[in-house]
Batch of 4 targets.
Target 1
Amino acid sequence: MHKLLVILVLCLFPLASFSAGPAVKGETVDWSFNGPFGKFNKSSLQRGLQVYTEVCSSCHSLKYIAYRNLSDLGYNKSEIKAFASNFTVTDGPNDDGEMFERPGMPADHFVSPYPNMNAARAANGGAYPPDLSLITKARGGGADYLYSLLIGYKKPPENLDVREGLYYNKYYSGNLIAMPQPLYGDDVTYADGTKASIEQMASDVTEFLAWAAEPEMEVRKRTGIAAITFLLIMAVLSYLAKQQIWANVKKKQI
Ligand code: HEC
């Protein structure tokens, strides 16, 4: 019995040390996509796309998402074609060996703001704005962390020396981030008339980036539920079959 207890404690020990979270715990949001039945909210995704396009895309790329993937947000083919054509894509080389520019097409991936990492660093005081395609998977705390970060720009404590080019953020590890506050409220005018408060924009762009990180989430959850239902039905059937098959044997023993 004692040995069993020791083994149990030893097994739980690493769990306890891994679950130590960041120093400041961020906000916890009740996302529509949480839980086994969770789904993305299409209007929020569309508003999030607008925030990404009008605010974040001037510094951050989203290179793993193609314009045609926007059909998940409820857009049809011609809307996606029109959206993609707003962007200029460098293509080529052509028959003369030259690169050339053309309007975006649905099959293109989201156009990056900078041609390469060095250009991105040079334009941001040496700090690299990471690609946002997988950001909700790449940071502990996921969507909650991203939301908290976006609303976490506060006045720094009096005794803290904030160097030029750094900004105080309550939820960033170390509290000093090289990204200037991106959202202030009313940075976009939502097509559906929703009021563009900081919290609203932060939650919409977070929902959009959670989708970008896992566009297949709804299918994955549906498949999981179908598989569990199937296994439950099979378990009941197997139990009934077993009762039936052994019924005679048991009677004989008596
Ligand atoms: C003016 C350029 C600029 C804009 C606009 C901008 N960012 Fe950033 N962002 C940066 C830079 C630079 C960094 C790197 C910060 C660092 O390393 O300290 C960064 C870092 C981040 C990070 C990573 C934080 C971490 O934990 O490492 C996230 C997430 C992020 N930005 C999201 C966004 C979102 C969402 C938007 C739009 C609402 C946005 N950014 C708009 C420049 C920008």
Target 2
Amino acid sequence: MKTIIIGAGVAGLSVGWKLAQAGLDVLVLERAQPARAATWAAAGMIAPTAESAHANADETQFARWSAELWPEFAAQIEAQSGRQIGYRRDGALIVAATQDAAEQLRAQSTKTLLTADEARAREPLLGGNIVGALWDSEEAQVDNRALGIALASAFVRAGGKISSNEAAVRIEVRDDRLVVQTPFALYPADKVLIAAGAWSGEIEMDVAVLPTARPVKGEMLALIPPQGTLPPKQVVWGNGVYLVPREGRLLIGATMEDTGFDTALTDKAEAWLTDRAVGLMPSLTSWKIDEHWAGLRPGSPDNLPILGETRIKNLFVATGQFRNGILFAPAIAETVSRLILGSAAPEIRGFAPQRFAEVS
Ligand SMILES: Cc1cc2nc3c(=O)[nH]c(=O)nc-3n(C[C@H](O)[C@H](O)[C@H](O)COP(=O)(O)OP(=O)(O)OC[C@H]3O[C@@H](n4cnc5c(N)ncnc54)[C@H](O)[C@@H]3O)c2cc1C
């Protein structure tokens, strides 16, 4: 069975890897280079607790399940690619600056709520203006840039093919088969998966299968500490940002900007991220900016993932993961690959593309 996947981000590669392992003939079309879009730009947090503040019940359940799948998913990627991806379950501190925020955290999770002194004992870089912090020892992270490279390698080792610098421009149904058109070729396929991130709705089709795209720009910074200073040991959330220790640097993220497909870096975002981070950890003022980048999150009109078969038979989508595409990767790989294979898949009806009136 010939399967075409459009987009070599974490979603397309994870599903493709599962399908290739199941023996399918899988070709991933990638308009640029594999795993260089949102998958590269992300912070790599696997943060079901911290992100539950933005999620509904279906999404929280999906996030928790995916977080449980992560250790085995990471181990298999490393074993099959021969590359390390830096999966670590180091926990996260979610800091509250007011009593109200602390109460909200208490309502959001059953995890331990630390006093301000206990939080500072765990993370000495925290400043004085906090009232407490939620400590979740199970929040994790992965080096998302290493993950993208390793997934591409595991996929190819499992027998999959990637055609880079080849964009899908149109999908058609011809004699009951799907045909994907690129500038170079027409590819007939039994099944097609659109996993093109924020650009998933940009592929030309005779009928709409996805709602209007909602790319959400995120700018991030990486700081390097002065000599002799160590970055925090765990992820820290607070003051509107998150701080992620990664390979001797501290990542600060991220802005949320509705500016279409623009990924320009702005001084305004740099200043906002720096101010917020320094508000949380005052000594960061002496750390140097090592890198500034931006990526586009694949948003959806209701901010929930869009997963499953579309109104066109054998045409599937995996997009709309918004802020959580790294966290969701194992669960998306599991459910979407099973749907494509026609085997029983866990319930994800709440994420069906047909929930949007414009494509039902
Ligand atoms: C700043 C930032 C921080 C983030 N932090 C986190 C985090 O900590 N944890 C988390 O879980 N998530 C995080 N995310 C979200 C996460 O990065 C995304 O949800 C996830 O990477 C989406 O993966 P994807 O494979 O769908 O899209 P992408 O990684 O964007 O991949 C889509 C691919 O499709 C290709 N493509 C597009 N159009 C076509 C076409 N027509 N033909 C062929 N190929 C095409 C693109 O070139 C790209 O390679 C963050 C995102 C950003 C921007």
Target 3
Amino acid sequence: MTVLILYATTEGQTRKIAGRAGDHLKLNGKEVEVIQISGANGLDLSRFERVILMASVHAGRYQPEFLAYVTLHKAQMDKVPNAFLSVSLSAASTDPEDLEGIAACVAKMTAETEWSPEIVVHVAGAFRFAQYDFLKSWAMRWIAAKRDPTASTKADTEYTDWEALYGFLDNWAA
Ligand SMILES: Cc1cc2nc3c(=O)[nH]c(=O)nc-3n(C[C@H](O)[C@H](O)[C@H](O)COP(=O)(O)O)c2cc1C
């Protein structure tokens, strides 16, 4: 089985998630291609038996290149079993308002692109203070103080639950 993983990222956590997901599937005998979505135009999706798309939430929205890609390629994606992994900080929360917020991000994406993924999985991302410019750093300090006062504002703080991710992949690709 050949699996395609397409990802969009801003600070790099989704690239890490895509890479680790690819490595896990390979260890389990799958052939995998991991490609950043900005370089995926012209890719023949019919070569793949399954497709995973990944993008991360920034101010309630996914990366524009992800939205553009699914808008353009939704007909081809609908022919292949597919899943969408939405990466966000809210996915690490148990607050119903946070969880409603990320469900609303997916609903907005579906309404805008008219692409409905077969499966949606919410994956917790990370604070990556080393990647933030001054303004982002200022905003993210405020968010960290509210969400996780123990989070370092100097090093990365990762919330991604790798075992949950691998568990999903094992079921989905079985
Ligand atoms: C400027 C900015 C805005 C963000 N907005 C949201 C948001 O609205 N909701 C949320 O749950 N997470 C939000 N996040 C958290 C990101 O989704 C999280 O850091 C994720 O790991 C980023 O993935 P990436 O490194 O692949 O871009 C935001 C992060 C940044 C830097």
Target 4
Amino acid sequence: MGNQGRPDNDKKLGVLIGGSGLIGGGILNYFKTRSEDEFELLAPNSKRLSLRDPKDIRLYLKRYTPDFIINTAITAIDSNPLLTFETNYLGTLNLARAAVDLGIPYIHFSSAAVMPTGKNLGEEEQLRLTPELANYPKSKLLAELALQEMHRTLGLDYTNIRLAVVYGAHDHKIQGFQRMLFALADQTMPFLFTNQQAMHSYTNAKKVPFFVHHVLNHREEFGGQTFHFVDPNPVSLGQLILTIKSYLELKRPREIFLPYPLAKFGAGCMDALTRLLRRIGIESKMPPELMFLQNFYQTQSLSATKLSHSSFVDPNPRATVFTELPMLIQYYLTRWEDLNLIVPYDKVFFDPGKRAEIFVNDPEQMLTSLGDDVAHPFLDTCMWPRGSDVDSETEDK
Ligand SMILES: NC(=O)c1ccc[n+]([C@@H]2O[C@H](COP(=O)([O-])OP(=O)(O)OC[C@H]3O[C@@H](n4cnc5c(N)ncnc54)[C@H](OP(=O)(O)O)[C@@H]3O)[C@@H](O)[C@H]2O)c1
């Protein structure tokens, strides 16, 4: 097998699929900035290597003969059955087949969408594969089942990392948690589309690359297995929405928990309206997350016990979706304002450090802290120090 694409050094060479996405982007950034002496990561975009085209996969992997493959790619969750099947399932299958041929580890990303509802669910829990499943969970479940089988029969060395609701910066497609934040910031959520009981697990996107790094270096412990990569404690959706509302000092949503039948009826009406608008030539689309409406009303918490009993050490155990909220709100509101996606906010309302308020009303106060601000060398301050806590700042990419 040719390997003319390999760099001429001792570093381990990896191929990452999905490097422009929320999870893949974080992994790419981490491997470029924190483990550059140990690894080199290639991240072809979907034009260079499309998971829908087996020839692309074959040519690329034969050319570079990597030491491992990471797959974070998915198609949009509301894609049609063929696109979903080809990208999420067949793409996975072909990458895993290539990993078997090359005798290298394959790191796969999956989702809580393949699991039933319930509390403290273990890694062994999976939905039953039925025709009724929506395209996204069906394709992710099929991929998980195929990987399990390939491990058993072909000795595939893989790790399946299951994520829950992911929170983190740089989600440029505005999906999942970020979509909810957007609906709040855009003031399009009149009531609480959940109940008082519903709890869910959350995944901190910033921590994922640390786990991938660890998993790659500990194949014996992590090979052939699924791990939930979630924060230890589930979060109440109602409490999270109300916390964001209070940060943003919003009037909406009103503190009324809308019963599920009413929410479902409302979603049905919206769906009919968007179809009608499309028919008369006005572009409109339902948020794809509404396919998970029922989940907003049901608890689904993933057990983090297996992860906590593993050799992986959480780089920042205190970080939760609540501690990250100020950073996420600041990052996304600024971005969405800049892109004219939302009406500009008065920054004073969501600047937790009140820096904008001081800047506007008392600029001289900025200079009083100048001595402290410049007391430490700038270039030697690392935002993500090796082996220590992940800080809560937004890193640049
Ligand atoms: N985000 C969440 O809340 C969440 C929750 C649970 C699980 N997960 C799992 O985490 C993983 C990463 O999700 P994400 O949120 O990072 O996804 P994302 O932001 O939507 O990114 C998807 C990536 O897949 C790439 N891609 C799409 N079609 C492709 C194709 N045909 N060939 C090659 N690449 C293709 C995209 O590249 P282009 O932009 O170039 O098309 C993009 O880089 C997925 O396995 C997902 O199931 C995510």
